[in-house]
Specification:
The complex is a heterodimer of chains A (113) and B (110).
Chain A lengths: L8 E5 L4 E6 L7 E8 L6 E6 L4 E2 L4 E4 L5 E6 L8 E11 L2 E2 L8 E6 L1
Parallel strand pairs in A: 1-10
Antiparallel strand pairs in A: 2-7, 3-4, 3-8, 5-6, 6-7, 8-9, 8-10
Chain B lengths: L3 E4 L2 E4 L5 E7 L5 E7 L5 E9 L2 E4 L6 E3 L9 E3 L8 E8 L4 E3 L3 E5 L1
Parallel strand pairs in B: 2-11
Antiparallel strand pairs in B: 1-3, 3-8, 4-5, 4-9, 5-6, 7-8, 9-10, 9-11
The chains are: A mainly beta (113), B mainly beta (110).
Chain lengths: 113, 110
Amino acid sequence: DAKTTQPTSMDCAEGRAANLPCNHSTISGNEYVYWYRQIHSQGPQYIIHGLKNNETNEMASLIITEDRKSSTLILPHATLRDTAVYYCIVRSYVGTSYDKVIFGPGTSLSVIP
Amino acid sequence: NAGVTQTPKFQVLKTGQSMTLQCAQDMNHEYMSWYRQDPGMGLRLIHYSVGAGITDQGEVPNGYNVSRSTTEDFPLRLLSAAPSQTSVYFCASSTEGSQYFGPGTRLTVT
């Protein structure tokens, strides 16, 4: 089973920051938080991941709470092309390899003009 | 560097036929996996592999076989196609960081 819960859908005005929450209250110490998105029927696209520190890249920022039980993906200036389903996933490192990746239903983000 | 490639892009099968979906990556990733996505639904993990010679079942493995003889290739075999296997199939590979997905194979079983 997926180990995360996300809202089913969200709207965001174009040009505004989109803040997508994710709850992972049962996360363990060796599990990373990953975010992906899927635009229409394309293959999912990696966005960002983190362990316990906040992370930022050219696409987004990831804010992880101090207790690591929840996180927020921030798209700083949402555009219409950011309309997609966003998936929050936890993934552990087992031995010398990462464990399997299970997707939940994700959050359908609609960016409104 | 082509990333993750999948062939074919589209396929129509009759019930009972068998076929192999091909997946290849040129990034030397150890971890590879197969997902299916039914219309309007999320991704479900079929099988995955953490390296050559090692495979394991995901959430929905029945009706599918995989093998991993090389790091680069991870084919998915449908043993006897059924209409319930009509779906879009995505292959992915990953390293310590991101996971890269292929463009998908749209399979219809009539």
